[in-house]
User: Fold these one by one.
Assistant:
Number 1:
Amino acid sequence: MEDQYSRKINYLRLSLTQRCNFRCLYCHAGRNGCSAPDELSLREIAVIAQAASEIGCTAIRLTGGEPLVRRDISEICETVRAVANPQKLGITTNGFFLGRLAGSLYDAGVTHVNVSLDTADEAVFEKITGIDGFRTVLDGIGKAVATGFKRVKINAVLLHGVNDSEEAVRRLAELTERLPVDLRFIELMPFGLTGSDYLKSFVSKELVFRALPDLEKIPDYGEGPAVMYHRQGFPGNIGIISPMTSCFCKSCNRIRVLSDGRVRPCLLGSREFGIRGLGVKDTADVLRRAIASKPASYRDGSDNLRINCEMKRIGG
């Protein structure tokens, strides 16, 4: 389906929970939020996935919070695969439970895995997440690579005063020197932050270029908003996602369903549409209306951008 700006919308991001076993600085997903009884049920997820398929979504990504805290995560993946049959079924995770669940996720039909990992320093990892789990996450990434998913990606959010040194970038990049993974550095978005608070935390993509001067751009890589690069002699790739310094709205191809069952046409917008309790046909109709309402850019009507809810609800 196309929106009013002729963008083809074929990608659904579906958040399964606000719960998380981490307490990351920029997300706060481990704090108060939607409880398990308020989350989308397996039946509701099936309806949304089927409706998304009917309007032309060929890629579905399951997010959170931490989606692997749901005890029915494998059944969710199997159900989404059965009712929607997406070309890509991805999951975004903090990686803590990935070592234990990689095999069952693969068997359930997951094709792509994204792992959030902002640092290669064990002490800094605990500072960011509130959890002593660095080695567990590394083991999970290794297990995901060994399991055979079509692609394993690592997402690192750049944070001032936390992981904003050239050495920190190079240490993370070492993962691509030994593993066939895509490491993507992401500019911080202003979730719950504004003005000087946000500016104090923001780090530009230029840090990555200074730290890794040997990056060679990969043309037509085809991986959403990331601009991808390669370094000669290594199996992995480096990506840069820069929503703040390089707006990529004109190529947006996605629609989002939040963890409390509302559709958000634009990640950085505030407009939402309710779909809980609807059947497949009505859900598809709401998704169409939401897509039709997508703005040309997240800055439309906002000179002082501030995202009005936390990442744990939006799902990344």
Number 2:
Amino acid sequence: LLGAIRHKGFIPWDDDIDVCMPRKDYEKLIKIFPDKLKNKYVLKSIERRNFMSPFAKIIDIRTIIDLKYVENKFENSLWIDIFPVDGLPSNKNEVKKIYMKVNFYRKLLILNSSKFKIRKGMLLRQIFKVFVILIAKLINAKAIVKKIESIALSNKYDKSEYVGAVTWGLYGIGERMKKSEFEKVIYVDFEGYKFPVFSCWDSYLRGLYNDYMKLPPIEKRKTHDMKAYYIGDDDA
């Protein structure tokens, strides 16, 4: 969304696409997506037992990736992330509490899949991080994911005035939108095509980034630290 509005396409230093949809549509997609679409694409989710996160991915099996700091047997191809949008309370303090809880379990899940890798500089800090990663790996990842999902589902989408991406909502209360505005669709330009976005895109981006048209400093223009390779079709 930010790339579409600010750059009319990909953010130059970014390397993935995120898609969101109401929880009921998200669950339907997981049920109806074929095992292998056009011999190219596979949907991964905890429900399909081929991914261990509280959201889904559609991957391109013609590619392979090497993630520098992540050790996860489920993440091995280029992807599009798909996030469920769930109900949120009208009370802002209650919304903040939900995101605080999810943020704790999300960090725990990230540490659970982190590599034991010492970076240059701040040796003591790096050693402490390795120790924390070791503790996190002792916790069952599936249990963490289920806890995140239970928090996200605590407010029913259909009965809520406000909604937002909860399971992987990195920006807390900034993710919160009026359901009526979220469900109203407009189209924006992205890499020469038109794609649907929610009508409240301006207030949403301001909630996440404030002045979203201003470019971040160079040191914050980060990618996923990965290498990607095209390996071709299975029958090639």
Number 3:
Amino acid sequence: MAALTVSRILHAGYVFECGGARIAFDTIFENPFSRNCHAFPDVRFDVDLIRRQRFDAVFISHFHDDHCSLESLDLLDRATPLYLYCLFDDLFDMVRQLGFTSVHALRLDQPVDVGPFRVVPREAMDADVDSMFQVRAAGLNVLNVVDSWIDDATLARLVDEAPWDLVLWPFQTMRELEVLAPTRHAPAPPALPEDALDQLRALAPRYVVPSSCQFALEPWSWYNRAFFPISYARFAQEVGAALPQARVVRMDPGVSMRLDADGLHPAPPLDWVIPVGDQDVDYVYEGNADAPPTSDVARHFPALTAAQWTRVLDYCRTGVPEKYAGLDAAGEYFDSPRIWQLSVHDHAGEVTRFRYRLDGSHATPVDAAGGPLGWTTDVPAAKLYAALALGESLTSMYMRINDAVFDAGTERELAEADVVDDPLIRCLFSDGFGAYQRAQLRRLLGLTD
């Protein structure tokens, strides 16, 4: 009987095997990945065995560093055909600089045939950033949704592609912005969004795997109780109730399943993904989980060298005003002049503060007599340095925004403000693309800043 073997690598990474051909998706062979995303459950990778693997093609859904890591790609044979969905030419240039000789841009709805596989990139919610994959092989139909929800037009097209044998569904509704300002957000209920269940009902698959978002933060991190509202048990309960005809199957890193017309059956695991400790673990959600002050968080990170600390100070003194001057206008809250306080916490929890008057495109340093505060940002020094030099992403910076009580008028206006209009976020991440991969490429090629 024709069959397709699906194996979980980690997070959104999978290996598909059929008829002697092997393809892989979003190959991450690192733990932790993206600097502080730790495999959950825990695993380690046999790098020597990974270097011996041969894939007929590797598909990457988008450029985010938890899906496209040059340090993971560095383990692959340079003749491996790579298919990337990305609207930025820079990423293709970086991959070619790493030595890959067969690098291709994916186009939405244009199939790629690899042996018995037909892989069709489908439009995700934000077509400027990411994609999802429809995979056909052995008469079977699989949808790898990766990270995104599905917009209505795409969902209608996918319903027309039914029946679906297997859907890999992003099961976590991560609170990436809420943890930046925990005192200003109510705890989210631990339930799947109703539109997610509606979409799964429309697809009506035989099997659903809770996919993507399969990580935790550092063991000490308060995020582990505040970032992830959905447990595996909750996902199985809600999806099972919404789709009684479907079976929910958990696949931990390294686990393999053989899919055929009769069902989904256990298969030999990937021998290069090695379980560490208890694998029967689940997420525990406790709302905002008594968020500790940034001074306490900062003590978990190592001290910066003198040169690194100087780089941080120079950025705060001169880099921020220079960068801010080149930014597009922020949200309506910043239409009025505001005093912004940036607090940088070192490894001992000691704080160095900077104040700026934000007025139009200007961020002018001021002293404490400059006026009442209108916005505050706290950040560990080690994380600010990592964002400047190593491509650290916002998710892992432990930034804390507006963790203060302002005057009554400011409080009323802040209720309508958007946390991502934070001046430090905008200064660090306004360029938007490829900082993490560029930092990786410099390290891999032995280059310095």
Number 4:
Amino acid sequence: MIASTAAIPVVRPGDEAAAIAAFASLASFETTHPSAADIEGLAARWPMGTAVYVSAVPSRPPVEQIDAAIRLRGLGFTPVPHLAARNFATSDELDRWLARMSEEAQVHTVLVIGGDREAPAGLFHHAVEAIDSGLLQTHGITAIGIAGYPDGHARISQVELQRALAGKIEAAEQTGLAVHIVTQFAFTAAPIVAWIRRLRDDGFEQPVRVGLAGPASLASLARFARICGVKSSLQGLARNAGLVKHVFGTAAPDELLRALAGEASAGHLGEVTPHFYSFGGLAATARWAAAVAGGRITLDRDEGFSVAPP
């Protein structure tokens, strides 16, 4: 079960490198259709029990998502599949999906989202409708993640996003489900920090897994940013393109991770941990994050850090 994220390990005041490593060690990961090599690469570097979120893509059959969750559980990880409400045509279809996730992959936590499908496949239009259905508890789901959007949403206003977030938290808690928030990825720290502070000011103390784009080519990052509608962060990526680190031949989120680790270790954001989107591949993301968590970093004079290859 993932009812909350772990507390950030205590480090000596002023030891910034140790704070970054401690923050990175609490990471979760996200993948779409991981290969056996991807999962084995993750297993070689991260402990059993690490949460791995398995995204739902409308164009891919649901059985792929179920199979990925089963394989992850088989190697000791905690699979957290995305439940994309708009992908399910009927309550029975959702019921069968939950049954397989529960029985075959021992899933107890799901990330409940509306989904990317333009037109709903059937009954469910919004994430809150799946939360209210009662089907999650029927299949042993005890905790859910819900989506947060520090960089905004391409089709939904900030006011609507905040109202929807509050509604999902209220619906989950009324039915006994623990709640955490998983944010869309961004490339700059300012909108993330401001969003979390607003969240805390509004009285929401739920744990937040902060989305970061794992190491990937600039072209891949730009493509996913356009797909996901993170426009202001895409502009930030363009401004910083000349500053990215190429130790692993890709752009890495070192500046963002360093800034967030500093805010988190100072206690400014409540309970937050990093959540890596593996646009450059799950194994490659795990390798980079493990190097950071292992302290193989050298702080730059400015805002980022370099990672030593294994």
